[in-house]
Amino acid sequence: MRRERLRDYAILLAVSALLTLPNLGATSLWDVDEGVNAEAAREMRDNNTWVVPTFNYQLRTAKPVMLYWLQRVSYSVFGVSEWSARLPSVLAVWLAVLLTYELARRMFGRATGLLAGVAFASALEVCTLAHAATPDAVLLLFTVLTYYLFWTRHEGGSRRWWVPTAAACGLAVLTKGPVGVALPGLVFLLYFAWNRELGRLLDRKILWAALVFLLVAGPWYGLVTAETRGAWARAFFGNENINRFNTPMENHRGPVVYHAVALFALFAPWSVFLLAALWYGVKGTKAVRSEERGSEEYRAALPAPSLPTPHSSLLTPGVRAFRFLICWFGAYLVFFSAAATKLPNYMLPVYPVLAILTARFLVRWRTGELTLPKWMMPAALGGLVLLAVAVVGGLVAVSGVARILPAGARVFPGLERWAVIGLIPLVAAVVMARAARANDRARFVRVMAVSSVAFTALMAAFPPLAVDARKAPKELVRASGVDDPTRDLRLAQLHWFQPSLVFYAKREVVPLKAPEQVAMFLAVPTPGYLFVPAALWDQIEPQVRVPTRIVARHYCFLRNGDILVVTNDGTPTAGR
Question: Which of 62, 194, 361, 533 is buried deepest, with most CB atoms within 10 A?
């Protein structure tokens, strides 16, 4: 058993490495979130603080501190770079993959665990956020850890889950805030209510759990509140939590079905089985009928010792597992669908559920435990074909080669070369169809797993390179030379700002509010460098009374236009 587990770990870590490490640091930071987080960690390191986060040398209140701590450690070991800023997310996903495997193995067996780990790691959203210097992957890790500790310690009526689960929730709260404890609490409440075991929440161990939670999460929250005289806490809890739930922030709005629809795109390529996996997962929550209680199969499936209430004794471990997974999925879907602010990464903590349910569905079908409607697997294969068409057509279209998009639309030359990646699910669909006709279900599942890893790994590693060429901050800083620490200079921006600009320049970038301020900024004798859209500079240049020159120019796809770096510095060494 131990050798099999180590072999599974080796397979999952190899798959995770293949999905996350290629070209991890090859692209510049993606704005807005990556730029803010990477720079906040760099500033904490430069300021030698572990308590007060800042960005652009102003108080940063949007997120708690865990990611910055991890990035700061990464910077200390590997140096400050895009690669080291993203490394904590990579390692967090690796650990989350292993925990997903362990949770699924504990619930349904080794085969389900291994396939769930592969499906989880190769889902597009998981792999994308593993490449991102954001707190999402770290929150994912602590969320899976919370549910793993709960599940493995609550069985048989045990009370051992309270304290370790509280500690994991404390780490989640240090990563993303109150959702790290509120949503697990809701999941546990729903799960026990469904099983008619709410009395298990009336336990004196809740006091120990609360103490441990406060010892883990409380010290930093207390210190940052004290050192900022309450400013951080007021902004974080009031604006970033309450207001974000009630009001769309940064125009991130969407309909109630936003997350339900997004899951089909972002759980790809495994989303072709999503509806079936959820359907059979819900069917698996059904309690054993009274006439089945006396059967040998039922008695053999009961946990030992059986759970304490009369109703719970009717629930096999498999039923309990399905109920827990459905509560986990449903709580997050309803909560974030009700929230006014909607972003696809909010639903990342349910991807382990989707992976486990999908793996369990495929394993049960492979072993003959499930008899499916004849149309179900052909429909899934049709979904793979549609995915192939969407990827090939989408990459060709946005590359500008086919001239499908309207004039002036953002295009990314070079993306058409990677349209071939979209053929992977097409080829997989053909091979899987042949396997299904031959009733070789094991080969069907293997091809799905291998093709999913290949497809997602290639999509994550290569198409972003073509998009990166159309990003401006890193190239503007390099060309203008404003990252030279030996020079005394000032930076400002007018109507164009990307947070990664501060990361690459390693200096404060002052925002100018109006064109009238540009002349004042450039009139100061200390060399000043202004980041400004080219079209806007053409309008305000006549108002500037001092000699200026353009030292850098680059296209920004977010602005869909050229950005300039204009300076009053006449020194020939100003540029590179």
Answer: 361
Report the distance separating Cα 166 and Cα 188, nearest Å.
Answer: 12
Check whether residue 450 and residue 355 sit in a common domain. Answer: no
The closest alpha carbon to 360, from 115, 98, 12, belongs to 115
Question: Do the domain assignments include residue 538?
Answer: yes
Q: Which residues contact 168 (CB under 8 A, 6 or more apart)?
A: 142, 145, 146, 149
Residue with tokens 């999503």: 274
| 388 shares its domain with 531 | no
In-domain check, residue 393: yes
Alpha carbon distances (Å) from 519 to 406, 442, 542: 37, 70, 10
Instruction: State residue 307's pLDDT score.
Output: 42
Structure token digits, residue 56: 């652009």
Same domain for 460 and 334: no
Q: What is the pLDDT of residues 281-340, one digit of tens each?
A: 999 999 765 444 444 444 444 444 434 444 454 689 999 999 999 999 999 999 999 988
Q: Are residues 60 and 179 in the same domain?
A: yes
Q: Convert 111-164 into a string of H (helix), E (strand) and C (coil).
A: HHHHHHHHHHHHCHHHHHHHCCCCCHHHHHHHHHHHHHHHHHHHHHHCCCCHHH
State whether 417 and 285 are in the same domain: no
Residue range of the domain that includes 452: 382-468
Which has the minimum average pLDDT: 266-275, 295-304, 484-493, 523-532?
295-304
Residue whose pair of structure tokens reads 């599942």 in the numeric block: 445
What pTM did the predictor assign? Answer: 0.92
On whether both 480 and 514 belong to a single domain, the answer is yes
Torsion, Cα of 415, 417, 418, 424 (10° steps): 150
pLDDT tens string 154-211: 988 889 999 999 999 999 999 999 999 999 999 999 999 999 999 999 999 999 999 9
